[in-house]
Amino acid sequence: MSAASDPFAPLDVDRLAPRTLMVRRALRHPGFLVGTGIVLLVALAALFAPWISPHDPDAQALGRRLIPPVWDAAGRWEHPLGTDHLGRDYLSRLIHGTRVSLIVGLFAAVVSGTIGTVLGLLGGYFGGRVDAVVMYLVTTRLSLPSLMVALALVAAIGGSLTTVVLVLGFLLWDRFAIVVRSAVQQIRSADYVAAAVAAGASPLQVIAREVLPNVASAIIVVATLEMALAILAEAALSFLGLGVRPPTPSWGLMVAEGRQFMFFKPYLIALPGAAIFLLVVAVNLMGDGLRDITAPEGRH
């Protein structure tokens, strides 16, 4: 096998095309591969939840309440991960809970990314008073504790999936704005930007065609980190009873419902807690890998 076709051959940075180089780096990055693999498995579980769940996640059967998992002597293979205090199958609820976590994480990152990216592009490209206004907004946002504000807003508006997504989206945009603004400030004086301006392109055209594509990789990296934060925030809100409403399966809500049995049936807290931990770590590994893979200085 030639070096050109072997993804694990030593990298020749000067001779490889940028896309080929990124693919090679991705295949050599164990953290990225592990994190991406776990996220993809969770996404597939969320997508096919109605077909792979062994039971209806909302079906109650008090005669089968608090059945332990199969590794316990009293466990049953009919319910591999046991049942909760209402007799609902825990494996089915965990599988359906992936939908809430991924929806909140993904769409909150989209909302916050849109807001932060627009502000960062404007502040970084135009500078002056526009940048001063953007930095004032960023400073104001950073002065507010995200989780406390989210608790107050959700409590005032009323908990629902849409409310949680919008509230978190409007509270997690500051990192996008700071990173994008810094990246734009570095490239706004580049030759290709000056050439576009000299060719008569409007500021909007320059930003859309020349600036935005060159900061897209930084936006994607930040989006993965904010997605992890949104997943944790949703779990915290649901745990406190201000997130997704029952009986919708949510990992944070499952932890809250199981806390009264934590000394007798610890799996009710351990399983959803482990799911939250695993997904957040996987998203962070994926984001860290993306940062290394897209690094211009050639980390690999």
Note down, in words, how this protein is organized:
Helix 1 packs antiparallel against helix 12, helix 8 packs antiparallel against helix 10 and helix 11 packs antiparallel against helix 12. It is built from 12 helices and no strands. The chain has one domain: Orthogonal Bundle (MetI-like fold), CATH 1.10.3720. The N terminus is likely disordered. The protein is mostly helical and 300 residues long.
User: How many angstroms does the end-to-end distance come to?
Assistant: 22 Å
Helix content: 55-70%
What is the annotated CATH architecture? Orthogonal Bundle
Assign the CATH topology. MetI-like fold
Broad CATH class: Mainly Alpha
Order of SSEs:
HHHHHHHHHHHH
Overall pLDDT confidence: 86
Task: Enumerate how many helices there are, as a single number.
Answer: 12
Low-confidence stretches: 1-5
Characterize the largest beta sheet: strand count, sense, and whether it forms a barrel: none
Beta-strand share of residues:
under 5%
Category by helix and strand content? mainly alpha
Q: How many structural domains can be distinguished in the coordinates? A: 1
Shape, per Cα inertia axes: elongated
Count the E strands. Answer: 0
Tell me the CATH superfamily: MetI-like
Radius of gyration (Å): 23 Å
